[in-house]
Design a protein that fits this description.
CATH class of the largest domain: Alpha Beta
Strand content: 15-25%
Number of helices: 22
Oligomer: single chain
Structural class: alpha/beta
Number of strands: 20
CATH superfamily of the largest domain: Pyruvate-ferredoxin oxidoreductase, PFOR, domain III
Number of domains: 4
Length: 576
């Protein structure tokens, strides 16, 4: 009886090609009709440490990895020592003992097949290319599962197309060698995956989805200083810059990045920068400047643990207070919280429209697990998407205005906007408080009017912000209240709770500022047993809910060790 899903782990020291190997295997299974979730955990070291990548292969989509392992590819001894306890009964560990060096002191776990394969020797002697040893290990997995090796060969051919026919042939030979080794143990392993018809799904991370949204929304400028785990945004946009006419600037720091966005936004160019908490801290003065000048910009904060450098390659969702209160004075910005790649795309596109509609900074905030985790998702639906540039005046419209006021007091707080070079649209822009013309003006009444004007935009924008979402049975016994990537773990926890005869659902908060306090309060009043699930120590979303609604959620499942939230962690920490 073939299993419908499998969990893999590839582990070894930094620099051993773990991420590329995982992507090869994942892409092969995606093309073979399966849903794949991939997540890498790595030390902030150039070499060394114990990095590992998890793959979850399933007939159904999932947004979180499993802690149990069916197949482990161990590229060093440390991977076996640290993860052997996670391998299930009937699972297999693939390793090269010339590298791993298991001695007489090692005791294999009962029910686990230890498959010793001389990857390095086979790659060097039989293939004639030492760098193909990882391909051999991957193709062993395909042989073990009975999955067709042709799919892997097709992926290899595409990846190495620029390297020439000889390199492709070497990798294909390595794939055949590993596949035959795996086939010999297929019956003993007995947990294969049947090849399915490809479904045309994409395989991408949250950062990629955000970039696709930016391109679709007409973003034409990227000003960014790379910072883990947001750096792939810069890389993605640079890769496609020529095709889509995007200017990509690798700035000297995050201060320069945000100020370059302000310059682009001021002249009417849609612009974006991505960073993490430390870089976002440097951007906060610029975010205040954009708010004062009513310039549209989009900033992405892909969260990692703090304070300071914290754990730069791990995950956490503890920047909620930081992004809400970034900038001087009362917060003048919108904060959006996607929880999966589809929402990264939808809310990423929305962010650009909201920035220009309300002439305001928009912060898109999510965690490393979502940003760098790879998901299998259908192609994004784009038919109904429309670009909204807001109140941008044309020169004909400006010609009808005898006394143009850039910061005109209006009922909704949004002033008609001119762009540099437009006849009749001259105005001043300053970091100080100003009057309707942009001239620095410190009168008390003017100050009150201008503050009210900017805050009116916040009130108006609330109706356009992503509303909270209840996922699952409305009559559930317990409700997981959460945000960002924890949504996926909570959804899977709901499935696990069925084994305990408990009905559970998920209440996802999808925007933080302005806050949908009415909708959240109404929903929480009808929930039987709310449980906060967050990846920070202080339950920051819980605090925001209390601040905005007066409702205290006392029961919590919190994780702040830098490791991803999982369904098992949630269920293990519940009192049922």
């Amino acid at each position: 009886m073939k299993k419908k899903s499998l969990s893999f782990l590839i582990g070894g020291p930094a620099g051993s090609g773990i991420e590329k190997s995982g992507q090869l295997l994942a892409t092969t299974f995606v093309r073979g009709g399966y849903f794949v979730f991939s997540n890498i955990e790595h030390f902030s070291l150039i070499r060394g440490g114990n990095n590992f990548l998890r793959l979850r292969i399933d007939e159904l989509p999932h947004e979180v990895h499993l802690e149990e392992i069916d197949v482990m590819i161990a590229l060093d001894r440390r991977t076996i020592d640290e993860h052997i306890h996670e391998v299930v009964n009937g699972g297999v560990v693939i390793y090269d003992n010339e590298v791993v060096k298991l001695d007489d002191t090692f005791k294999a776990k009962n029910g686990v097949l230890m498959l010793n394969v001389p990857f390095r020797k086979l790659a060097t002697v039989d293939v004639g290319s030492a760098i193909t040893e990882n391909v051999i290990s991957l193709s062993i997995v395909l042989g073990l599962t009975g999955f067709d090796v042709v799919g892997l060969k097709q992926v290899l051919s595409k990846i190495f197309s620029s390297k020439g026919a000889e390199v492709i042939r070497a990798n294909e030979k390595a794939a055949d060698i590993g596949y035959e080794i795996g086939k010999k143990s297929e019956k003993e392993f007995n947990v294969g995956l049947e090849k399915k018809k490809g479904n045309g799904n994409m395989f991408l991370c949250g950062n990629d989805a955000l970039c696709v949204a930016a391109i679709k929304a007409g973003c034409k400028f990227v000003g960014e200083y790379p910072m883990t785990p947001s750096s792939s945004v810069l890389h993605f946009m640079a890769k496609w810059a020529d095709k889509y006419g995007i200017v990509v600037k690798h700035t000297e720091d995050e201060i320069a990045a945000v100020n370059s966005l302000i310059g682009a936004g001021f002249v009417g160019v849609r612009a974006i920068a991505a960073t993490a908490g430390g870089g976002f801290a440097l951007m906060t003065e610029g975010i205040g400047l954009a708010a004062m000048n009513e310039v549209p910009i989009v900033v992405v904060n892909v969260m990692r643990p703090g304070p300071a450098t914290g754990l730069p390659t791990r995950t956490e969702a503890a920047d909620l207070r930081q992004v809400i209160h970034a900038g001087q004075g009362d917060p003048i910005k919108l904060v959006i919280l996607p929880g999966d790649p589809q929402e990264c795309f939808d809310m990423g596109f929305l962010a650009f429209n909201l920035a220009e509609k309300y002439q305001i900074p928009v912060i898109v905030c999510y965690d490393k697990y979502l940003g760098e985790g790879y998901y299998t998702v259908p192609a994004f639906e784009t038919d109904g998407l429309k670009v909204d540039r807001g109140k941008v005046l044309s020169e004909k419209e400006l010609a009808k205005i005898s006394d143009y006021k850039r910061y005109l007091l209006t009922e909704d707080g949004i002033s008609p906007r001119s762009l540099p070079g437009m006849r009749g649209g001259i105005h001043r822009a300053t970091s100080d408080e100003h009057n309707e013309y942009g001239e620095i003006f410190e009168a008390a009444e003017n100050r009150r009017l201008m503050v009210d004007k900017r805050m009116k935009k916040m009130e108006a924008a609330l109706s356009d912000m992503p509303k909270p979402l209840l996922i699952g049975d409305k009559n559930a016994d317990i409700t997981f209240v959460t945000w960002c990537s924890c949504k996926g773990a909570c959804m899977e926890a709901c499935e696990l709770m069925k084994n305990k005869k408990v009905k559970a659902n998920v209440f996802q908060i999808r925007s933080a500022y302005p806050f949908h306090k009415k909708e959240v309060a109404e929903m929480l009043k009808n929930i039987k047993r709310p449980i906060l699930v967050e990846q920070n120590h202080d339950a920051q979303m819980g605090g925001l809910i209390t601040e905005q609604t007066g409702i205290i959620i006392s029961e919590k499942v919190l994780r702040y060790d830098g490791r991803p939230m999982t369904a098992k962690f949630i269920v293990d920490n519940l009192k049922i």
